[in-house]
Amino acid sequence: MSQQQSQGQGQGQQQDQQQGQQGQGQGQGGGIDCYTVEHETRYAYTAPVSQSWQLGRLTPRSLPWQRLVSHSVQVDPPPDERHEATDSFGNAVSHFGLHGAHRQLRVRMSCQVEVGERPSIHAEGMPSVADVRDMVRRPQGTTDDLSAAQMSEPTPLVPLSEKARLYGAPSLQPDWPWFDALCDLMHRIHHDFEFDSGATTVSTSVDEVLALRRGVCQDFAHLMLACLRGHGLAARYVSGYLRTDPPPGMPRLMGVDASHAWVAAYLPGHGWVEFDPTNDQLADRRYITLAWGADFADVVPLRGVILGGGAMQRMEVSVSVIPQD
User: Fold this and answer.
1) What averages of pLDDT result for each successive group of 10 residues across the chain (325 residues)?
2) Of the candidates 157, 167, 150, 126, the residue with the CA atom closest to the CA atom of residue 277
3) What's the predicted TM-score (pTM) here?
4) How far apart are CA 55 and CA 41, in angstroms?
5) Eight-state DSSP code of residue 247
6) Helix H segments across the chain?
7) Domains of the chain (ranges plus CATH)?
């Protein structure tokens, strides 16, 4: 029995910074954007797989600013068993098993989703980094406060890192306004690290990313989480999709997008504010939320265990994020 290859995140999800650069605040403007998202994963094995158990997080979340209009997940070959559940973070999870021999597996998610504006951030009365840290340490008993306290703890993929704490220190000054401090950290990560889809793997550590000074959105999200948690702040890992635009005059290509990752940090009294260090901007109507957790391991789009399959397997992933008029 072997672990099936899992999808990483962030291949190709750095936008041209001349387009869509955000100002300092969410919820600016108005309206709703509509998208069709297609996410297909294909596995090919060198020998038959006799048993396959899979777990997918491929259902966009329903949120105050995001509405799931339609959704389907197709599996080929058809699974022999399948059931739906919700994990501890509230993400929808699909479990399915195949108990007949097969050399290929295809999982295709298709959905329509509407995305509006996130809640606005107001600079007036913004608490300091130290104030927010103290509030996270002393949760008031609300659901958000308690889940935020959990998101300030180390995890297997984002352990406590002295190097990350020191990297974050110039931005996360105790007396700085919380929002300004986190924006500064986001700016620095974007400036100091190069987007390089071949530099890292799903298992590259935060300290290795700090040494390499390059990586993909998964790496930059983990780094920002390590910096924030190292200073006692609460933040979670968010996975989803980001609408990208083709170069001027070029058609939109199908299947060339990718899943994306960013960070949501907790501001008591307001809620979760979403920062994208890969693109140096706040999440807006271009960002479709799929799942969230403490790190990437909690939100892997598709992972599984197989019996058989030979020594090699090939995985191909194609994603299309299609704006609707």
Assistant:
1) 66 45 48 96 96 97 98 97 96 97 97 97 93 89 77 96 98 98 98 95 95 97 98 97 84 74 95 96 97 97 95 93 90
2) 167
3) 0.91
4) 13
5) P
6) 129-137, 143-150, 162-168, 178-192, 206-212, 217-230
7) 2-20+34-112+300-324 (2.60.40.2250), 129-298 (3.10.620.30)
